[in-house]
Each structure stands twice: as structure tokens, then as C-alpha cells.
Amino acid sequence: MPSKRIPFLSLCLLASSVYSFSTPSVCRSNKVLLLSSPTSLHNNKWDSLIDDDDDEEGLQFAQLKDVPRDMKYNLFNLKRQRDAFDAIRSVAGKELTNDVYARDPTDDTRTFFFVGKLARVSDVSLEKAIARQWPMIEEHSARLRPLELYPKWGQLELWVAPGDSELDVAYCRPDIPFTKQTRDVEGASNVRNIECGFQGEVYENDEEGFRTVRDEDGKPVRSEIADSSESKRQPTDAEMDDLMEMLNSQVAAADSD
Question: Can you give the pTM of this predicted structure?
Fold first, then answer.
């Protein structure tokens, strides 16, 4: 991940997390940050996500109509799009990468769930890249959050934020935009599947997953968390827990490099 200036509060938390954990704990976003994880490990995670949902949760994921064959939710397609993500990311960095969030449009809490990351080549617009992969991303979102998102599978909203902006989102930075995407975009079907990629979030060890509360325009509902003891508000206990887990994930990512 490209280097980034970390605020004073984050440095304190990061130092605490390094001191407290000889082996960094598994946190909410480390799967999408560890881009060099072995393929076999990824496959085991996808196997679990695909195999467990119907039997354990009573969910039925019959294919929606008009889903392109190469975007159906199966291990072969998931691996190809993950490999495409890795290949594009390795060349373009985060400039052509976006974080992807999903939400139930009828949810009064206005909770946006982080579901993965998307990458695209420079000749493909963000709108086309996400529309091309929409069936896969939406079904992944419903499988990832069966309680909150599965009931609206087929009607979910997908939003994007700048790549690798999870920490800024956790801090409620007002300058981090969330942009609502459209399922059907003209020309999206002409995008080759290797010209865009998706690396989905996968939970481990009963993780709660990263989420954020935003208004209907995708702007943070809460005020920005202070970098230090200034006039801005200080984080709540729950937000401190979220930030600690986010920073732990960065430690895990750094140790894997």
C-alpha cells in the first residue's frame, strides 16, 4: 500500500497495537489489503463462503436473469477477477483502484458495508468497470452480509470510495466522497473481463466487518474525528475500537510484505 501520513492519534494506536500483539490479530479489512496471499488460501475462503450459505442460513442464490456467464458467482470467475485486480493494482497502484460498499436502499440506519475493492485499466471508466462486474459484486455482498443485505439481493445499491481510504472513512473525513453507481451503463458489456477486477472482502474468526453510516448523498453523518486534542470531537469508545482494528489490519499487511 502506498505510504501515507498517519495522524498523531493513529500513531499512538499503531504503537499500542504493535506492542500488544506479537502476532497481529485478524481484523476487518486485512484480506483485501494482503494482496500477496497464496491462491490456495483465497480458494479456501471462497469455498467456505459459497458452500456454507445455503445450508446454514437457508439462503437461495438462484441465478438472476441476464447475468453474463463470466460474471456468475463461482470459484473460476472469482479467481479470474481477483487475479485481474492484482495484475492491474500491481501496475497502476491505488490510482485506478476503488473501495466498494453495498447498502440496502430501504435501511433506515443508512449503513454502508465494505465489500471489497475494484480495479480497472485506464481506458475503462469506473462506471463501466463496476457495471460490468455488478452481478458478482452484488451477490458477494449478499453472501457476505446475509442478514442485512441478502433480503434485498437484486436491489442493492453499490457505492465507491477512493482506493485504500478505509482509515479516512473510519475518521469520518468529509473530503472522502462516496459515489453511488448504476447497475446498467451503456458500453459496459463491451469491457473485457481482464480490463477490470474485483477482490472481495472475506470475514474470518467471527469478524464483524467494516461499515460506516452515511447520509443519502454518501456523506458522513458524524463529525470528523480529531487528530489530536483540538476543537474537533474526540472518538467514542466504539470508534476507538474500529480504529484499533483498522490499524491492526495495516500492521498485518505490513508484516506480510
Answer: 0.71
